[in-house]
Amino acid sequence: MKANDTANKPLTYKQAGVDIQAGDTMVDQIKHLCQRTYGPRVLGKYGGFAGMFRLDFNEKIFARNYREPVLIACTDGVGTKIKVAAQMKKYDTIGIDLVAMSVNDLIVQGGEPLLFLDYLAVHKLDPHITTEMVKGVSEGCLQAGTALLGGETAEMPSVYAPGEFDMAGFAVGVVERKKILDGSDVEIGDSIIGLASHGLHSNGYALVRKICFDKLGLSPDDHVAELGSTLGMELLRPTRIYVKSISEILKKYKVKKIIKAMSHITGGGLPGNLPRVLPEGMGVKIKRSAWPVPPIFHFLQTHGPVDADEMFDVFNMGIGYVLVVRPNFTRSIMTGLRALGEKPYFLGKVKKASGETLIEWS
């Protein structure tokens, strides 16, 4: 073939790095993963240009009627935890983290997650791998009781190197206006209850990877005696989703506002997240020995080494979610949370802030 014949040969999208057929195959493979999260509020057929979700109330179908509904929306990603998943070639849990990071934020203000959408960006679309990713997202939505209403998968070989990918998630929820929790009712003396995390969750992985892989030279397959598992399995432990437990506790107290504020403990740890829900001029006194710190944090602090204050500023240190409650109801709320499968700990009390110091440790 002459050179000019080759130059004039028609190009295809696939030759440019994007396989439309692979995308169609993936969409078909994830159909059941989306549909298993649908409830009676989801309308329309799968594969439309946009998903539809009913907000009106039909007493025969829905469990809750909102008189003054306020929509809540948030978005988040998983950070560099995705690089651990890529190293291990294990993609079926990272989607749980994606859902957790948004829905745990959403419930802080007393909201109910309604729907979730995901965005996946990859070097090259592999229907099997992408389906595994969506499998995790679907599982997270089931744990949160929310519908996986749709999503987007972008194949971008000129942006992402082979094996690389990124994920983002978007959650929409609703809360009754008079039930919004904004922390304005918090008073000095209120109790702080912390709920146990599953470990690292999805924050601090730049530091985690620097310690474990760069400094110690470990691989995800290495068994670490201090952790009782391989390093990779510990690092990929999914973020705990607190939606159903928190929703049940909120339902229990329909008249009195027993729970005054809540906080999702993510990047920034307790010092960076708990003060966000406190009124100006208030702080907290937290007892560091009030809960058991999971082994992964001891491992990182020892082998970093990492200063104790830095650990608390970066990681959740074993507390993934916090409730600020009326002191007289502390015991009953903790009992209720235990019955729902949570591990609650009494962390301390709300106090007057000492200047700019919002968290005092004891």
Biggest sheet architecture: 6 strands, mixed
Question: How many E-type strands?
Answer: 14
Portion of residues in helices?
25-40%
Bulk shape: globular
Query: Any idea how many domains?
Result: 2
Radius of gyration: 23 Å
Oligomeric state of the chains in view: single chain
Average pLDDT reading: 90
Distance between the termini: 80 Å
Q: What's the CATH topology label of the largest domain?
A: 60s Ribosomal Protein L30, Chain: A
- Specify the structural class: alpha+beta
How much strand content do the residues show?
Answer: 15-25%
- In spatial order, strands of the major sheet run 10-12-7-13-11-14
What is the C-level CATH assignment of the largest domain? Alpha Beta
Quick summary:
By secondary structure, this protein is α+β, with helices and mostly antiparallel strands.
Short key terms for the protein model shown above:
362 residues; alpha+beta; 60s Ribosomal Protein L30, Chain: A; Phosphoribosyl-aminoimidazole Synthetase, Chain A, domain 2; 4-stranded mixed β-sheet; globular
Write up this protein.
The model has no long low-confidence stretch (mean pLDDT 90). The chain is α+β, with helices and mostly antiparallel strands and 362 residues long. Helix 2 packs parallel to helix 6 and helix 5 packs parallel to helix 6. The protein is built from 13 helices and 14 strands. The protein is globular, with a radius of gyration of 23 Å. A hairpin with a 4-residue loop joins strand 8 and strand 9. The chain has a 6-stranded mixed beta sheet. Strands 3-6-4-5 form a 4-stranded mixed beta sheet. Strands 1-2 form a two-stranded antiparallel ribbon. The chain has 2 domains: 177 residues, PurM-like, N-terminal domain (60s Ribosomal Protein L30, Chain: A, 2-Layer Sandwich); 171 residues, Phosphoribosyl-aminoimidazole Synthetase, Chain A, domain 2 (Alpha-Beta Complex), CATH 3.90.650.10. The N and C termini lie far apart (80 Å). The longest helix has 18 residues.
